[in-house]
Structure formats: structure tokens, C-alpha cells
Amino acid sequence: MSIRFVIAILLSLATHPAHAEGERNELRLYMRGEFLFQNNRATCHGKTGKGDGPLAKDVPIPPRNFRDGIFKFRSTPPGFQPTDADLARTIRHGIAGSTMPIFNTLNDGEIKALILYIKAFSKRWKDPDRIAEPIAIPHVPEWFAQLATAKPHITAGKKIFTSHCATCHGNDAKGNGSAAAGLRDFAGRPIPPRPT
After folding, report:
1. N or C: which end of the chain has fewer CB within 10 A?
2. Which residues lie below 8 Å from residue 71, measured CB to CB, with a gap of 6+?
3. What distance in Å separates the CA atoms of residue 113 and residue 182, rounded to the nearest whole number?
4. Its pTM surpasses 0.85
5. For residues 59 and 196, what is the distance between their CA atoms, to the nearest angstrom?
6. So what's the pLDDT on residue 12?
7. Which residues are within 8 A (CB) of 125 and not within 5 positions of it... i.e. 6 or more apart?
8. Is 129 helix (H, G, I), strand (E, B) or coil?
């Protein structure tokens, strides 16, 4: 995939000289992302992004296959690609309950380079029909700040959680519900519920 990307950039430089500086900058950023990926993430995600790195077979939750272009953690609607901010959040903060570590020592430029490189693994990123704005999150209601006003909402929320969520997340929200062990993603990989 990296060779194709580089060839596409070089062809664009030759045929569109007016855009040459922007293309050169993108190529530099891509090459920087490749270096960071191969030195930080290939041990889990594999050299070609398939999620088949040398450490992948020893972890309970397999690393993401970037060639699929499908991501679990995103702010966009189902079926759409995550935003760059979503990817940056996962890289910076890791994923609790998995072996995805925290990369909080990377600067903004390095994160941007990694994201560009990761997105080059899948054609899904080139499909405009798969790109969407994040879902709007409502403001925190006024009643949330005071226990007295929040208590009836907590009671109602507990009933909803028990009837709709506890089967997977467990009554104590530790991710140990009766259906938790059988949960699988689109590729048949285990996806245990996140404990709170």
C-alpha cells in the first residue's frame, strides 16, 4: 500500500506542478507516519496493517486490522469512518481493557502523520459516502449537577440499564454479563464489554 501511495503522489507532482508543495508536504507526512507506525505499532498491527504482528497471537483481543477500515470507537453514525479526532483520541489514550497502549508522548504532528498512514491501508477512506460529521452530543442537563434533582433520573436509569444493558455489561457494570463471553465483532473476534 505504501508504494502505491508514494507513486500516486509522485505522479501528481509531475502532472500538477501547481499543487507540488502540498503534495510534497503530504508525502513527507506520510513517510513520517510510516516510520512511526513501523517502529511503534507494527509489533501488534503488523507491517502491512492486517493486525497480524508478532505479538498479536498472544493477546486475548486481536489488534485492529486497518485494511478492513472498520473501527469500533468513533463519534460518527454506524457504517461511517471515524473522524481524525476519533483516531487521535484512541492513539493518545489507548483502549481500556485491551492491549492498545497509551501513546501520550507523541506530539500533534506525529499523531497527524500516523493517522494519514493508517488511513492509507483501506479504500473505505476514499469513499465520500462513508464520511460523516460526528453525532451531536446534547448538553449536560441542569439536573445533573445536584444529587437531589438527579436521584429520580438515576433510579430510572438503573431500570433501563438492568433491562437493556446488564445482559452484556453485568448488573455491577464490570463487563461480566451472561452474554458477554459470546460477543463477537464483524470478523468473529471477541469484543468483551468495557467495564466501568
Report:
1. C
2. 64, 81, 82, 86, 87, 90
3. 36
4. no
5. 21
6. 57
7. 69, 81, 119
8. helix
Domains of the chain, by residue range, sit at 2-130, 142-182
Beta-bridge mates of residue 184: 190
Give the chain's length: 196
φ, ψ of residue 190 to 5 degrees: the values are -65, 140
C-alpha cell of residue 89: 483520541
Quick one: residue 190, left, alpha or beta (phi over 0 = left, psi -120 to 50 = alpha)?
Answer: beta
Fold for the domain defined by 2-130? Cytochrome Bc1 Complex; Chain D, domain 2 (1.10.760)
Closest CA to 87 of 76, 98, 96, 77: 76
Distance CA 61, CA 46 (A): 15
Query: Which of 195, 192, 193 is closest to 59 using CA atoms?
Result: 192
CB of 175 closer than 8 Å to CB of 193: yes
Under the banding of pLDDT at 50, 70 and 90, the label for residue 179 is very high
